[in-house]
Every structure is written in C-alpha cells, then in structure tokens.
Design brief:
It is a single chain. This protein is an alpha/beta fold and 309 residues long. The protein contains 13 helices and 11 strands. Strands 3, 4, 5, 6, 9, 10 and 11 form a 7-stranded mixed β-sheet that branches. The chain has a two-stranded antiparallel ribbon with strand order 1-2. Strands 7-8 form a two-stranded parallel ribbon. Helix 2 crosses helix 3 and helix 6 packs across helix 13. The chain is elongated. The two termini are 44 Å apart.
Length: 309
Amino acid sequence: MLDARQLEALAAVIETGSFGAAAKALSVTLAAVSLRIKSLESTLGQRLLVRGKQARATPAGQALLGHVRQVRLMEADLVAGLPGTDVAAGQLGQMQTLSVAVNADSLISWFLAGVAPALQQHRLLLDIVIDDQDHTHDALKNGDVVGCVTTLARPMRGCVAEPLGIMRYRCVASPSLLAQWARPGKSGSGAAMSPQRLLKSPAVIFNRKDALQDAWLAQHFRLKDALYPRHFVPAVDAFELALELGLGWGMVPDLLLAGREHKPPLLEVLPNRPVDVVLYWQHWAREPLSAQRLTLAVKQSAREQLLQV
C-alpha cells in the first residue's frame, strides 16, 4: 500500500516545481517533504524526481502523479455522494478541476462552447493544455490530463478511445496572394495555381508540430518533405490575421471558415481539395463521476459540430 502523504508530497513538488513551494502548499517543513519523497523512492526502488533548478518527474513519477490526480477526483465524488451529505453545502464547496489536452482549432470551434453548460451545471473547472492533435495524447500518457482530443485511434494503456468525428481543413489564402499566382488571362480561385508557385510563397503554420500543410501537399500533389518558407503563428486569431494580410497560405477548418462572414475573405487555393482529420476522445477507462460528465459533454458537442465518420 502506497503512503498517501508521500504521494501528495510527490505531487506537490511536481505541480509546484520545487520542494520549497511544495512544503508551503502542504503546510509542512521542507525536511518533511524531502523525507517523504526519499521514503517513497526507497519503497519503489527508483528515482521519481529529477532534482535541479526546477524539479521534474521521471516517467515513474509522472505515472504516480496521474494516480494521485485520479484518486483526488474519486475522493471528491465519494465525499459528495456520502449518505447524509448536505447537498447545499456540497454545491458551495470546492470546485473540481479537470485537466484536458486539446488542439487550438477544436478548443475555439466546438470544444469549449460544447462543454460549457456541463462545467457550469456540475461546478467543474478546466485546466487546458494546448497542443497539436497529433501530440495531445502525450499529456494523457504522462498523467498530466484526464482526457485529450487526439488523432490517435488506438487506446493507450488504461484508456478508452472514442471516435468524435472529422474536422475538415481547407488550404486557403487571401485574394491578393492568389492573384499573384494567376497567369495572364486566368481568373478564379486556384485557376492557375501550380505547386511550384505555391511552394515559392510562405506558408502560415500554427507551430512546429503542425503537419496539416504537409498532409495537404502529400494528399493532393504527392509531395513529401517539400521545402518552402514558413511563418509560425501560434495563436488562432493571429494565424487567421496573417492569412488575411497575405503573408502566406495555410490550413483552416471549415468550422472556423463558416464564421468569417464579416471578416476579410479567405479563398481556397484548390477548390474542393480538403484534408480530413479524424478525432478521438481518449480518457481514463475508470473515470470518476466528474470526468464522466465531461466525457458525455465532449461527445455530445462533437456529434453536433463535427462531420461524422
């Protein structure tokens, strides 16, 4: 049986980044925190922390952090459901925090608005980790989050992968940029576009993990590892602004293009040549009630907003 105080000391150090901050958060001495973690490492026979200017968890430490967070949620659900618990007092008690990993496009287009009613009804707080949809599962694997929107279809150990639907992306650019690609006597979106002309113009990319533009080039031109100049703009509003200003071409989901009626136009570089990204909701197989409520809200929002497989 693992010692609960030792586990909480480990979690506090990982979450705060230092032994001193953990001691303050737990209202114990620095020596007590250090002793508890040393005892836990001795019991398990391995290092759980990488000591340094900022303490970091080893893979084993990350696994234990995920366990601690799961136990916290389950204990909160248990206390709230105990016979004789004052419902009114429970409703006024501490709100539960759920950590999730979501890609920026999903967050702004369908995720946050879809889960908002459940968060308000059940007094839940979100701690959101933003990452590319091809990498969000790393946060779940490390125990940092209870669920993630991901492209990974295969369930990770101890998790369930539920299909959400398809986000359809289109390669778009400003009319001024498309006009630069047009040959004399040609007109219309994509009328004279060639991959050679496209690759001479910069692409606007969300971050260095974003591979959507490469997927589009591979799918529609059979180009792999293409070289082209790139702007990196890791914010959704600024990303679209960069496209509007004609700084380059980029991938935008239909869900966001549909809301641009009163914004400067963005036109498809090649009409009707999208890239479809299938999304899944990966979460713990044994979810506490609060996480179950979030899962239901995520799945419902996806059914209403995403294209279904």
